[in-house]
Design a protein that fits this description.
The chain is mainly α. 73% of the residues lie in helices and 3% in strands. It has a two-stranded antiparallel ribbon with strand order 1-2. Helix 4 runs parallel beside helix 15. The protein starts with a helix and ends with a helix.
Length: 447
C-alpha cells in the first residue's frame, strides 16, 4: 500500500488520467515490437493468473460475517486503485530490462529488473524473488487454492450434503472432490506440458469469454435487486470505518476490514507481487510505457470490475451474514437467492465460471513459476521439467487440504514474494517517472 501511494503521487495519478488510453492500447497491437506473444495475449496470460478463486472465493472470504464484513470491499477498491500504479510500474520495468536470447526466447520479470536495473550486487535479491515466486506457484496461488476452490464448488453443486464419500488416509472425501480433482490435474498437465504459447492460446479464448459470462450474471443480479443497492453501498462505507468489535473479538472491524480487503485484493489482482511483469515481458512491444499501461488494465478489470460484481452480489443478497457458509458457498447462496432462475441453474453457472477461472490461474502460475526457476537454474531443462511434474502433483493434492490452511499458506508466500519486488519498484521509481514523463510529452507533441 505504501509503495502504491508513493508511485501514485510520483506518477501524478496516472492510473486515473490515462486509463482511457490504457484501455485503448489493450486492444491495439503495436507494430514492429519484439516479443513472443501480442500485448493482448500477454494481458490475457496475466489475467488468467489473476482472475481465479480470488474473485469468487477470496471476496466471499474477505467480507464474510466472521471476517472484515462488507467494509472489506472498500479497502479492496483502495488497494486496487493504488495497485494500478504499482502494476503500471511493473509492466514498464518488465519491458525496459528484459533480455532476449539467440532463439528469440524472452526473459523478463522482477529478477531481471533487479539485476540489470539495480545492479549486479543486488542479484541475491533477484534470486530471493525467484525462489519465493517458484514457491508461490507450487504452494500458494497457483495450485492449492485454485484446485481447492474448484473441488469445493463442484462438491457444493453435485453433493452439498456429502452423501457419497470415500475414506482416504482416515479422512472422508466426496466422490465429487475426487473426480473433479483428478480431471483438473489431467487437463492442467495436458496444457502445461505445451508451454507459454499453448497457455496463452487457451487463455485468450477462455478468459474473455468466462469474464463476460460472469459479469453478465452478476450485473443481472444487481439490476434485479437494484432497490437494495443504495443500502448495500452505504453498508460498505459504514463498515469500512466501523470501530465495533467483530464477533465478540477484541479487534475493531476497521482493522479486520483493512487486513482482509487488502490481502484478498492483492491475492486477486497480484499488484506488487511481481508476477504480472513475467508475462508482460513476453509482449511484442518496444515501448515500456505502453506495456505498463496495458498491464495496469489487468488490475482494473480484475478488482474494480469483477471483484466488485462479486462483492455487491454478496452484500445485496445478505449472503455475507449467513452463518455456517464458507468460501464459495457464500457466493453460491448469493446467486441462488438473487437471480430469478432455479437455484440449481444459478449454482451451475457459478460453478462453471469458478472452474474455468481457477483452471486458467493454474496455467498462468505454472508459467510464472517456471520463469522463476529458469532464472534460478540458468535454464536447466531437467530441473524445470521436474518442477513441472511437481506442480502437477501439487494440483492433484490441493483438493484434500482445508480451506483455512490453503489461504494461510498462500498469504505467507505472497508476502515473501512481494518484498523483493517492492524494494525494486521503490529503487527504480526515478527511472519509471523520468521515462513516463518523456513518453507523454512526446505524445502531446505529436498531437
Amino acid at each position: 500500500m505504501a509503495v502504491g501511494i508513493f508511485l501514485t503521487f510520483r506518477l501524478r495519478l496516472l492510473q486515473i488520467f490515462h486509463l482511457p488510453k490504457a484501455l485503448k492500447f489493450m486492444f491495439q497491437n503495436e507494430n514492429g515490437g519484439k516479443g513472443e506473444i501480442s500485448s493482448f495475449a500477454a494481458l490475457c496470460t496475466a489475467l488468467s493468473a489473476t482472475i481465479g478463486t480470488g474473485n469468487i472465493v477470496g471476496v466471499a472470504t474477505a467480507i464474510g460475517v466472521l471476517s472484515g464484513g462488507p467494509g472489506a470491499l472498500l479497502w479492496m477498491w483502495i488497494a486496487a486503485l493504488l495497485g494500478m500504479a504499482t502494476k503500471y510500474s511493473e509492466g514498464f520495468l518488465a519491458i525496459k530490462y528484459r533480455r532476449m536470447d539467440a532463439d528469440g526466447h524472452v526473459c523478463g520479470g522482477p529478477f531481471y529488473y533487479i539485476e540489470y536495473g539495480m545492479g549486479k550486487k543486488w542479484k541475491w535479491l533477484a534470486k530471493g524473488f525467484a525462489f519465493f515466486g517458484a514457491c508461490v506457484g507450487l504452494f500458494g496461488i497457483g495450485t492449492f487454492s485454485q484446485v481447492n476452490g474448484i473441488s469445493s464448488a463442484v462438491q457444493a453443486f453435485f453433493d452439498p450434503k456429502k452423501e457419497h464419500t470415500v475414506n482416504i488416509l482416515g479422512a472422508d472425501y466426496t466422490w465429487a472432490v475426487i473426480v473433479s480433482g483428478l480431471l483438473i490435474t489431467i487437463f492442467a498437465a495436458l496444457v502445461i506440458i505445451g508451454g507459454i504459447k499453448r497457455i496463452s492460446s487457451v487463455s485468450q479464448v477462455v478468459v474473455p469469454f468466462m469474464a463476460v459470462v460472469y459479469i453478465v450474471a452478476c450485473l443481472s443480479l444487481i439490476v434485479i435487486n437494484i432497490q437494495r443497492l443504495p443500502h448495500a453501498v452505504a453498508l460498505i462505507f459504514e463498515q469500512a470505518f466501523s470501530f465495533k468489535a467483530v464477533a465478540g473479538g477484541s479487534l475493531p472491524t476497521i482493522f479486520i476490514a483493512i487486513q482482509k480487503g487488502v490481502a484478498r485484493g492483492i491475492f486477486s489482482n497480484e499488484s506488487g507481487l511481481g508476477s504480472a511483469p513475467i508475462a508482460a515481458a513476453a509482449a511484442q512491444t518496444k515501448e515500456p510505457v505502453r506495456q505498463g499501461l496495458v498491464s495496469m488494465t489487468g488490475t482494473f478489470i480484475d478488482t474494480i470490475v469483477i471483484c466488485t460484481m462479486t462483492g455487491l452480489s454478496i452484500v445485496l443478497t445478505g449472503a455475507w451474514q449467513v452463518e455456517g457458509l464458507e468460501g464459495v458457498q457464500v457466493t453460491t447462496y448469493a446467486f441462488q437467492h438473487g437471480l430469478p432462475i432455479p437455484g440449481q441453474i444459478s449454482a451451475f453457472v457459478l460453478m462453471i465460471c469458478l472452474v474455468f477461472f481457477a483452471f486458467t490461474t493454474i496455467l498462468g502460475w505454472d508459467y510464472y513459476s517456471e520463469r522463476c526457476l529458469e532464472y534460478l537454474t540458468n535454464g536447466h531443462k531437467k530441473k524445470i521439467l521436474t518442477y513441472r511434474w511437481l506442480y502437477i502433483l501439487a494440483v492433484f493434492i490441493g483438493p484434500y487440504m482445508t480451506v483455512s490452511a490453503v489461504w494461510t499458506i498462500a498469504d505467507i508466500f505472497n508476502g515473501l514474494m512481494a518484498i523483493p519486488n517492492m524494494i525494486a519498484l521503490f529503487a527504480l521509481s526515478g527511472v519509471i517517472v523520468k521515462e513516463t514523463k518523456a513518453f507523454f510529452a512526446a505524445e502531446k507533441h505529436k498531437m
